[in-house]
Write a structure and sequence with these properties.
This protein is mostly helical. The chain is built from 12 helices and no strands.
């Protein structure tokens, strides 16, 4: 639905302007901006360190430059002071907005786009938790691991997590907690069964995320994630 809305907005922007020439300018700006982002700007570093991202301004800056060239050099429109400046600014912003819409339309098709992947609540929870509790962020910055490799591991883990909480797999018997659970059964069978299930899920989570987290804090991370995913699925089931 979001992709369809982007295409609709893009179509409206194109049909409300000079058509082909306007679209060509926006396409060229999109290409130039992407070249600058991949060649001169470390977008991954900006995202990971949560720094100010100047790249979102680039389409509008180049859009205004294109508008100046179109008005002054190509059309040779006489300069009328503030009215001309205003017209150039509006045209430049429109070109920049169209360029941004084109990028978003294609980014929605990118299977490795972080923002697109994070629309999946399970992926978002796991992605943010891993960045916080592991050294993966530094490894990405140092290029010890590529973003593609990291995303492959995350996607595999997400598939396992969804299977655990959708009960598509049989949870293993957690024999380590047998004695503890038996004492709970004597007090409250329902509470003990729930505790057993949660422990089983944590054991499964430890297996699923073991390739992303060191063994030192695997238990703690799995426990934290189990609580987060439990709340996530509980909230979704209420909707």
């Amino acid at each position: 639905m979001q992709f369809e809305n982007l295409l609709e907005n893009l179509f409206n922007l194109i049909t409300s302007t000079d058509g082909g020439a306007f679209l060509l300018q926006a396409l060229l700006i999109t290409i130039v901006v992407q070249f600058i982002k991949t060649t001169f700007i470390n977008k991954l570093k900006i995202d990971l360190q949560k720094k100010f991202d100047p790249t979102f301004l680039l389409p509008f800056i180049f859009g205004c430059i294109a508008a100046v060239i179109d008005t002054v050099i190509i059309k040779r429109t006489p300069f009328l002071g503030f009215a001309s400046v205003y017209e150039i600014a509006v045209q430049g912003i429109s070109i920049g907005a169209t360029s941004a819409a084109i990028y978003k339309a294609f980014a929605a098709l990118d299977k490795n786009n972080i923002k697109t992947l994070c629309r999946d609540g399970v992926f978002s929870i796991l992605y943010n938790e891993i960045l916080i509790v592991s050294d993966i962020k530094q490894k990405l910055l140092d290029k010890d691991i590529s973003l593609t490799e990291f995303l492959v591991k995350l996607k595999e883990a997400v598939s396992g997590i969804k299977a655990i909480y959708s009960k598509d797999i049989d949870l293993p018997d957690d024999s380590d907690n047998k004695n503890t659970e038996e004492s709970y059964i004597e007090e409250n069978a329902e509470t003990a069964a729930k505790t057993r299930t949660e422990q089983q899920k944590i054991q499964c989570l430890k297996t699923v995320i073991s390739g992303l987290i060191s063994s030192d804090n695997l238990e703690q991370v799995a426990t934290t994630l189990n609580k987060a995913f439990g709340e996530y699925y509980a909230n979704n089931n209420r909707k």
